[in-house]
Amino acid sequence: MAHQKEVWEVSYHTNPEGLKGSLLVASASADRTIKFHTLAQNANGDVQLQFYEKIETTDEVMGIKFTPDGRFFVFSLLDQTLKVCYTDSMKLLLNLYGHKLPVLSFDISSDGNLLATGSADKNLKIWGMQFGDIHKSMFLHSDSIVSVRFIKDTHHVLTASKDKEIKLVDADTYEEVFVFDTFFGEVWGLAVSSIGDYFVAVSADRAIRVWRQT
Hints:
Oligomer: single chain
């Protein structure tokens, strides 16, 4: 089953409870739906993508992510809110309100305790995943925050912005650890390695930059 409008983000998680070891794939779309598919091997060893479930939402879906343990998934809407749902039942657990403009990116810490959200309102917010409470709101950038990523096994979070900067923030102490300001254009996105030893950023200056931990 295809979406009727743009797909903004695709997320996946291996072996969520009740899916018998298959890979669960979720896609977030501007058509106000989230669609779930399973990816598994059949008896012949061929990999197949099969429709699993669909959720209809009240607004365009900007992004979606599973928690590291696969028990929950989080998605953001164009109306500036985020929602936390159970993966097995797809039922709503938490509604998160706080940003004044849409959440463009968010990430969950590898221990599943913290949620970091970056918005067009230029703010980074740190939330507790257990109760959905805001731990801290930080006015970090002078333009929209387009990408937010936690570093594995830490509470350090990277934020990329259209203001041509990436910042590293400690989500426990709320301190700016470092500012990466070597860009000549808007930063469009970043990705962190699976073990957190380096990250990659892309920007409007047509360059791909890699930073390694030393």
